[in-house]
């Protein structure tokens, strides 16, 4: 998997959580499930941001064309993360409306990644920089996963499984790029 696929996989995971959470909120007996899924979403967003920071945000901050965008995306992330944290404390009617308002911001943020951040990143970064960014992304995700396992990010078996799978795919991609593994035998 390359950097763009890893980012896409994170976006798919986040989108799936956003789709699943409203179903958990319709039954009052499932409030704990809703809280768990909301925690998973928050954890996944934190880990995605932690991986993007060294992979794309740091190198793109050095380019005049993308520096302001990176800072704007970081501020937007902080805003919806605050709203998610506040939402986790809400247990009354109106929760779903607030959830939809917050996840609209998340959806906008991910859309901006795809349409405003990734195109200039592809244009500005060399193939070597993209390879380094891929490594940085995988390493940051692994570091975030270790922090999550220690309880720094929260606890989620689902997130653990998704992150380990993404990290393994990223590591396999890097090994393949370096010729350490191949598709079949070489003569």
The proportion of residues in beta strands is: under 5%
Low-confidence stretches: none
Structural class: mainly alpha
Fraction of residues in helix: over 70%
- Tally of DSSP helical segments: 6
H-E string: HHHHHH
Number of strands: 0
**Main sheet: strands, sense, barrel:** none
Taking all Cα atoms into account, the compactness measure Rg is 18 Å
Give the CA-based shape: globular
Mean pLDDT: 84
Distance N to C terminus: 25 Å
Task: Describe the fold and architecture.
- This protein has 187 residues and is mainly α.
- The chain is built from six helices and no strands.
Explain briefly what this protein structure is.
This protein has helices at residues 3-24, 31-61, 64-87, 95-124, 127-149, 157-177.
Features:
187 residues; mainly alpha
SSE inventory with pairings:
Elements lengths: L2 H22 L6 H31 L2 H24 L7 H30 L2 H23 L7 H21 L10
